Amino acid sequence: MLTIAIDDKDAFYRHGMEILLQDIFLKENFNTIHIDKLTVSNSINVDVIIKSFVPGEEYVCHPLLKFRNKSGLIIGVYDSRKKPELSELPICIKNIVFISRNESINQVRQTVIESWRSRPVPAELKFYRKCLHCCRRTFTDKQYAISRLFIRGYNIKQIACNLDMSVKIVSGHKRLIMVKFNLDSDAELVTFLHNMRTHNPPVNLFRT
User: Fold this and answer.
1) Burial 124-159 (b: 16+ CB within 10 A, else e)
2) Which of 96, 171, 188, 207 could pair with 138 as two cysteines, CB 3.0-4.6 Å apart?
């Protein structure tokens, strides 16, 4: 039996992906295919994971995925115009394959088939468990304080006043956050911060 877990809030996209994956893996000689929502309990041993990513999310720690011991397939679905930079990903998703939400069915089909057939064997996964050497991106204390107020609706001047900083310093830190997580607009920044705040399990945005 092949097990698949999907984490995507777009019900139409999720349903279409379920149909496509069933068609793909039935032709890969799997007689039974079980598809479920991605959870903490099934993330460790499920064969295939489909997970949507908001801009910036691909560069942070993913506690849901870092304890996987399965030589399966992780597919990340992204919305932004920029494809995530594979060389800068954290260890827990080092073997991920990204697809754009706007790709055609044939493109997605080809990517899934090729990635499944070339997925890493368990021995190759052992290297990707060394969190101390992970290149995940994190916040400084000041960046966290600024982000916490920004997502609550404070503007730059209000944040500067609240944190006893100059407007120039706050603007500089905000810009550094956007560059660090490859964000192009305030809208992407708000979406990223909201996603981090509501993430389950919680994401540690500090280097420890």
Assistant:
1) ebeebeeeeebebbbbeebbebbbebbbeebebeeb
2) 207
Helices (H), the chain: 11-26, 105-117, 122-125, 141-150, 156-163, 167-180, 186-198
Domain that holds residue 193: 141-198
- Predicted TM-score (pTM) of this structure: 0.86
List the structure tokens of 34.
């079980």
Q: How far is CA 203 from CA 20, 58, 99, 186, 195, in A?
A: 31, 12, 23, 21, 10
Summarize pLDDT for 134-192 with one digit per residue, the tens.
888 889 999 999 999 998 999 999 999 999 999 999 999 999 999 999 999 999 999 99
Q: CATH no. for residue 47?
A: 3.40.50.2300
Domain tally, the chain = 2
The answer to whether residues 124 and 183 belong to one domain is no
